[in-house]
From TrEMBL:
Protein name (database record): MMPL family transporter
Keyword Lipid biosynthesis (UniProt): no
Coiled coil segments of this chain: none
Key words, A-Z: Cell membrane, Membrane, Transmembrane, Transmembrane helix
Length: 711
């Protein structure tokens, strides 16, 4: 690091010009980067995904795209079996068919199946499969058209309504404000925190580092889109997580630079000292985060690989900017940026020293209380349900929601809104196998336009229970088994693909976890020159992430404060890809703070050989820093939680909770208490491992003072 710093300071102009060019290009091409991001969620090789591709290719719609639903409920004294009301609804359906060329429609007037009537014949509905368009909303064109067809239309005096999963999701959205708005929200909160920390123009330096990191990341992301599919979700992760991470790394180095100056070092010498200590920690932290995210690349889901590739840019570029551009800025302008001038601030925090001292005096009590609290918060994970939101979880205070509630009240099974589709050359055999299958509410084999192409036909299967719930999933398993031996039969539909997604993600989870754990332990052992500290850090991270999962389940699955915090109903499930992405991001980010604290404890221990004093000194030097850094990252995730996409909101909730729990409970209470209890064992590193990692094992043999008095 010393050699690197000298090289950077020697070629200051080249460094500045390099980042200036990349930043300008990244800003100029940011719009093109966003346009190049994809919205496809492919699961190559999975049977449900392959069936849906076949359905879409042959019929032009359906498969993974759920239908829009046109419904009407006539007055109590009327029935849709009456010729007049039947004809009125039939006319409306034909108008919808004419307005949506190529749409596949299933309706009672064309298919005289009693399953399409409910509530004694008062309620009927038509399933409309428009041709999807590319982008985040495949029915962005079709939904307004269908709504215009039904506007003012009535059947027996009753108004027609439009619902369906796409309509329900559109009703809950707030409109995409663009990633720039989210970044400005996060940057505004970060600036407030930085102003309180520095009370000088130095507050703008971490934001400048973050700006360079984010725009350069977008430039690299554009190049990445030319070789692989990258999800639109990545733009928010790069922008907002990049904002927090880059500011954190810059904050750590700037704070150490100020500390060295407060101790009397000249400006450039202070830069060198900061890079040798804080800069080294930043490099190890960034590599640790990168390792966590790189593990997503081995997941056999292109969507997750894109997140892994994109996420990899965040820490690596943040480290690159923080260890090149930042030392140049501090060496050239650092003292001037201390304006308005004030007396050097004691880099140690007396408040955090008192907190650490309390933890070292009663470590058993502190560790026990913190562990019980974390386990209590993690307990709801036992009720975790992975999958799509339940049909009944959408709000009912809008037309689509009220129409969906009306269908449910009339006895229409939730599987009608999220059908399973069976592609086959022998629809009769499929119907015979599935008609009496437990959990199946209806099996329909339409023969009208759009339901048969050459020798292939589509059979609709509705589950009695919600397809995303336990009963619905079990029914879909039975459906797949029942038609497995019918030649050419393929089972598709969105619920089937959702099930395959869970399998694809979590069948490979042990590999992902193993890669993260092994590489992280090796990196931390090298950074901390210890075996025990990395293992402890790993266990604390797992407990912390479990607590974040638990509270997220309470909010989004069980509905605790969902309306208060987000102004929407709980979704009744956690989107399948979110937990594994949360683990990858949160594991690395939480390890950042662990490494910041433990590296300083290691430094202090090497100085005087007392574990208790190392805990107190390490916390007193880093407590204010970690609190400020975690608050900035927390605010970035709060900004991320305002993104209209529900999946991103759930992801942001878990990440924000994880950072908050980690900073307040783990790093402030549990970590110092455990380091105190482990005493000299903290610093043990076997000689063979030390040789492998090219570091020196701890050789201290003198007795450690038992006093916990702060020096």
């Amino acid at each position: 690091m010393g050699t690197w710093t000298e090289w950077v300071l020697r070629y200051r102009k080249t460094v500045v010009l390099f980042w200036l060019v990349l930043t300008a290009l990244g800003g100029a091409l940011a719009g093109r980067t966003v346009d190049a991001l994809g919205f496809e969620f492919a699961l190559p090789g999975q049977p449900g995904y392959e069936a849906n591709r076949e359905i879409l290719q042959r019929f032009g719609t359906g498969g993974a795209y759920e239908p829009l639903v046109l419904t009407v409920t006539v007055p109590p004294d009327r029935s849709l079996r009456e010729p007049q009301t039947r004809q009125e609804f039939s006319t409306m359906v034909e108008r919808a068919r004419a307005a949506l060329p190529g749409a596949r429609v299933l309706a009672y007037p064309g298919t005289d199946d009693p399953a399409l009537l409910a509530d004694g014949g008062r309620t009927t509905f038509a399933l409309v499969y428009p041709r999807p368009v590319p982008g985040p909303e495949p029915y962005a064109q079709a939904l307004p058209v269908l709504e215009s067809v039904t506007a003012g239309a009535t059947v027996a005096g009753a108004p027609a309504q439009v619902t369906g999963i796409a309509a329900l999701e559109t009703a809950t959205g707030e409109g995409d404000r663009g990633v720039l708005v989210e970044v400005l929200l996060g940057a505004g909160g970060a600036l407030v925190v930085l102003a309180l920390v520095f009370a000088s123009l130095l507050a703008g330096v971490p934001l400048l580092v973050a700006t360079v990191s984010i725009l350069t990341s977008f430039l690299c992301l554009l190049g990445l889109t030319t070789v692989t599919e990258v999800s639109f979700v990545v733009q928010y992760l790069v922008a907002l997580i990049g904002l927090g991470v880059a500011i954190d790394y810059a904050l750590l180095i700037v704070m150490r630079w100020r500390e060295e100056r407060a101790h009397g070092a000249e400006n450039v010498d202070a830069v060198r000292a900061a890079m040798l200590t804080a800069g080294r920690s930043v490099v190890f932290s960034g590599v640790t985060v990168a390792v966590s995210l790189a593990a997503l690349i081995v997941v056999p889901v292109p969507f997750m690989r894109g997140i892994g590739y994109g996420g990899l840019l965040i820490p690596l570029l943040s480290v690159a900017v923080a260890t090149t551009l930042l030392p140049v800025l501090l060496a050239r302008f650092g003292p001037r940026l201390e304006w308005p001038r004030r007396a050097p601030r004691d880099p140690r925090s007396a408040r955090w020293a008192r907190i650490a001292t309390a933890m070292t005096r009663r470590p058993v009590l502190a560790a026990t209380a913190a562990t019980i609290l974390l386990l209590a918060m993690a307990a709801p994970v036992l009720t975790l349900r992975l999958g799509a939101p339940a049909v009944g979880s959408y709000p009912t205070d809008d037309p689509a929601g009220r129409a969906s509630a009306t269908l449910a009240d009339a006895g229409v099974p939730p599987g009608a809104l999220r059908p399973v589709e069976v592609l086959s050359t022998d629809s009769g055999a499929v119907v015979q196998r599935l008609r009496d299958l437990p959990g199946v509410a209806a099996v329909l084999a339409p023969t009208g336009p759009g339901w048969q192409v050459a020798d292939s036909t589509l059979v609709q299967v509705w589950t009695a229970g919600d397809p995303a719930g336990g009963a619905g999933v079990a029914t879909i398993d039975r459906i797949r088994s029942a038609v497995d031996d019918i030649p050419g039969a393929q089972v598709g539909g969105r619920p089937v693909e959702d099930m395959d997604l869970v399998s694809a993600l979590y069948d490979s989870a042990p590999i992902v976890l193993s890669v993260i754990v092994v590489l992280t332990l090796l990196l931390l052992a090298r950074a901390l020159r210890s075996v025990v500290l990395p293992i402890k850090a790993l266990l604390l991270n797992v407990v912390s992430i479990g607590a974040a999962y638990g509270v997220t389940v309470l909010i989004w699955q069980h509905g605790w404060l969902t309306q208060v915090l987000f102004g929407m109903e709980p979704v009744g499930a956690i989107i399948a890809w979110v937990p594994i992405a949360v683990f990858a991001f949160l594991f690395g980010l939480s390890m950042d703070y662990e490494l910041f604290i433990l590296a300083r404890m290691r430094e202090e221990y090497d100085r005087h050989g007392s574990t208790n004093r190392a805990v107190v000194d390490g916390i007193s030097y880093t407590g204010r820093l970690v609190t400020s850094a975690s608050l900035i990252l927390f605010l970035a995730f709060v900004a991320l939680s305002t993104v209209p996409t529900v999946e991103v909101r759930i992801l942001a909730t878990a990440l924000a909770l994880g950072i908050a729990i980690d900073a307040v409970v783990v790093r402030s209470v549990l970590a110092p208490a455990l380091v105190t209890l482990l005493d000299r064992a903290n610093w043990w590193l076997p000689a063979p491992l030390a040789k492998l990692l090219r570091t020196a094992p701890e050789q201290r043999t003198e007795p450690e003072p038992v006093s916990t008095t702060h020096r």
